[in-house]
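Thought: the user wants the 3D structure for the chain below. I'll pass the sequence to the structure tool as-is, report back what it returns, then summarize two notable features.
Action: structure_tool
Action Input:
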Amino acid sequence: MNKKNLNELEKYLDENITIVGFVDNIRDLQYVQFLIIRDSYGKLQVTIEKNEENNKLNEIVSNLSCESTVKITGKLIKNEKVKLNGMELIPNGIIITSKCLEELPINYKEMNSSLIDTRLNYRFLDLRNEKNNLMFKVQTCLINAMREFVVKSNFVEIHTPKIISAASESGSDVFELKYFDRKAYLAQSPQFYKQMAMCSGFERVFEIAPAFRAEKSNSYRHTTEFTSFDIEISYLENLEELMDFEENLIIAGLSEVKEKYESEIKRLFNVDIIIPTKPFPRIKLEELYKILEEKYNFKMNYEDVGDMNAESEKLASKYIKEKYGHEFVFITDFSAKKRAFYHKREKGIPQGADLIWKGCETTTLAIRENRYEILCNQAEEKGLKDDVKFYLEFFKYGCPPHGGFAIGVDRLTMLLLETMSLKETMFIFRGPSRIEP
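Observation:
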């Protein structure tokens, strides 16, 4: 297609061009008509004087409605009086390619004028908002930069099955479905299969794909279906190596976003893109508990001891920001009772961490247990040995030491742009009470 993006028109000044897009606004005055045409890159003013020569064009515009789509040909000229980029199109032809037949059920230009759930009912309109448009450009840039980083680091991309036979992995609830004459389940993550790739000798793999959690949570940070950026690496010496790798991955993604979209993000979201310095602060869980109690009078509730919860994550970020001026922190040394059975342990302590950013967990990363007998014992300890029998088979025939992590793409975007919830950063949100549109 030879479509001309509306943010790149200066090179076509004094030329006859064709533009396409939505009708963003119409002003039909006594002697002149103005159209504002919008595409996903920008806007342009179209000016039509009312005279006999333009009679057919004037009639088209008089019967035109906002949010219709049009194809317009004409001469692009510079006009310093035009506030919108100092240029306008003088048309000689207007074709209505589709007409908006009714008043919009929501005002997508004023996002606060409708409740988020009402906006989600009309997500196809809500996404026309300039902020939403930018959000997904930023997400594309972020994930593409991270993808390029891992590909340049000799990673192989895999595509694991989302229909699985085992119901359990780490204790999370799963969605059950009928698979011909037997039960099957939607995968919580590609965890077992990316570890299978380690057993296969692939050494470094990644996947960007959907994952499913049948959890009846209605928090701002949970969803029943999300996109996960998964990493698994063989021959890691220790957890420090894995944390170092994730630091580099995060920095690569944020650096690209800052370079390409910093000014637009500041204008629309009022967020500064801060590239973190290395190493990210690290702190052991027990030490963090003591600090949070001393500084903020916070004490972990009984059921969450040995782990983090939403309040402790927010306070941990507050403390790290105050002490180190850093947005990220790795929390280590969790309780084995709170970690998955496949995490390797040293002296009973899982060799894993949570990465907290802006008061929210973005990643659980860990060195995996690759020794068959120990892995079997840890699975049995969690009551999962029968459910994960097929997975345990991978480790009977030699498997290199390895580790990995997963980043929720939608949550990462939410934290980057500091939006209110995943309902805003997911293209289509899925939750316990929402399965449409």
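Final Answer: Structure generated. The two ends are 30 Å apart (CA to CA). Residues 10-98 form a domain with the OB fold (Dihydrolipoamide Acetyltransferase, E2P) fold (CATH 2.40.50.140).
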